[in-house]
Structure formats: C-alpha cells, structure tokens
Amino acid sequence: MKARHIYLLLYLFVTTSVDSFNLFSYVYERCDSNWISFNAKGLQNDLDTRLFGQEIAALLIMKAVSRFMANDNPKKPLVLSLHGPSGTGKNFVTELIAKNIYKKGMESDFVNLFVASNHFTHSNKMETYKSQLKQWIHGNVTQCERSMFIFDNMDKMHPGLIDAIVPFLNYYNKIDGVSFRKVIFIFISNAGAQIITQTALELWKNGQDRTEIKLKDVEKYISESVFNNNSSGFWHSRLIEENLVDYFVPFLPLEYEHVVQCLMALMKANGLPQKRNVARRIARDQIYFPKFERVFSLKGCKGLHNRFCDDV
Length: 312
Ligand SMILES: Nc1ncnc2c1ncn2[C@@H]1O[C@H](COP(=O)(O)OP(=O)(O)OP(=O)(O)O)[C@@H](O)[C@H]1O
Ligand SMILES: [Mg+2]
Known about the structure:
With about 300 residues, the chain is of the alpha/beta class. The chain contains 13 helices and seven strands.
C-alpha cells in the first residue's frame, strides 16, 4: 500500500470517529441539554389546548413545573401528588410534563414509571421492594440529576413502602454523595376522589363554576383523607406528615362537554374529520352520575377510544 493510501485511510478514520462521536450523542439519549430542556411555552400550550376541564390542575402544574425548572438551585425535589376520579387526565398530564422536559417524553431513560399494582404486588416482599426501590432511584439519579419518577396507583401501594424513599424527597443537600434536588416525583392516585367529586357536585348544585373550587380546602381535605385511609399507600406516611408534597393537585370529574372535546381530539389525532354530531352522540351514550342529574361522566374520558373505533 502506498503512503498516499495510508494517509487517506488515517484521515478517514480520524474524521469519521469525530463525526460518529457527535452522531452518537444525537442518536443515544444523554443527560444533557440536547435531550433534557424545559419547553415552558409547549407545556402551557398543551395544557391550554389538550387538557380539558382541569383549569385548576393546569394552573398548579404550570406554576409548579416552570418555577422548579427555572431554578438552577432548588432546595428540594419537586413533589406533586395528583388526585381525582378515573379518566380525568392524571396520567395524561404526566405525559404532557414529560414531553415538554425530555425530548423522548415518557420513552426517556430518565423517566421512570412505577405502577404499584404491577411492580409491588407481594406484601411479603416489602423489605426487598424497599431496598430495590432505594437502589433504583439512587442509581438513576447518580446517572442523571434531572430524573423523573412517577408512582401510579399510589392508593394500591402497600402502606409503608413509600416511606423508604422519603429521605430522597427531603431538603438534604446530598445523600451518599448524590443530590436529589433536581428530581421530579409525581404520585398518582384515585385517593381523595370522593371529596373532590363531592365538592364539584356542591358547586354545580349552587350554580357555581367548577373553577371556583377552593383550592386550600380541597388540598387540606385530600391530604387528610389519604393520610387517614389505611388501605392507601399514603396511610400515615411520612411523606404527608413531614409536608414533603409541594402540591396536591385535584382533578375534577369531567362533564358531558369535556367528553365531547375528548372525542373531537381523538378524531383529529386519528386523522379523521371532526364530526361534532358523532362526538355528541357517543358522549351521550356514556354513563353519568348522579343518576338523574347526569352531571359527571363515570369514566371521564377513559375508554373512549374503543367506543370511538366502534362508532366512526
Ligand atoms: N381532562 C382531559 N383532557 C383531555 N383528555 C383527557 C382528559 N382526561 C382523560 N383524557 C383522555 O383519556 C385518556 C385516559 O386518561 P388518563 O389515563 O389520564 O386517566 P386517569 O386520570 O389517569 O385515570 P385512572 O385514575 O383511571 O388511571 C387519556 O389518555 C386522554 O386521552
Ligand atoms: Mg391513571
């Protein structure tokens, strides 16, 4: 081989390794600003246009997440606890948050979802779960301080399990050399749904708008009721006792018009023409409560996709 050829090969090797290094960081997710950066406008827009009937939750979430993400030196991790009846948008809003922080949204390696009813099923394995959970969170935050942990079905979680991770949620500077202050923890549950629904119903009966719900009262009732419910993961939890939850976010039961909005959004997402008359017909067929007044949809916007596929 001639010297000219060797030079050429050497040149190709050096330039392609630099390029492939750049390419690598574009293709493989890393804990850096290419992959993790908060899009405040995007979140506001998603909350305004895609989340229906949850003005209070939208307001709280926007405030909480934007303040937290704008602070480069938070004193503690952000802890949100989402409560409300089924199909009202608790998981949906979590997806919107993830999408506007992580380029890969819920698919990001830095977003961790635990479903209590799937991951922590055996009550005799609680001590193992506790240490695994601690190790998992510690390990992941060591890799990336802007990690997100979502605990779904908190009301089905074994009471006591969540206390294992309470130190991570606190105001500590570092635990075993790792800072948890930039982490977001989101707890999701139906706990407190009864008190939220009752309050929304009272407002409706008094002819008041659902946005007039008094946040202070609802927050207090939610935290008291979940703390005192001995079948919930929050039961007598230090999470509540030590005031580590920054925001208790109420999700209100959805009304007929919101179900129509969900159906219209589904049609659009599926590339179909948005037919309001069809949306109204499907929405009318849903189950509403109280039985005679038919104010709130029993399943919120959940399961509409199947109905929608059958009907359109
Ligand atoms: N308020 C809402 N605005 C827009 N879409 C909604 C809303 N609530 C629910 N949806 C739609 O319904 C689907 C199911 O809702 P989601 O999974 O968020 O309910 P949930 O509150 O977590 O219910 P559950 O308590 O049963 O888990 C969502 O993916 C979304 O498409
Ligand atoms: Mg859910």
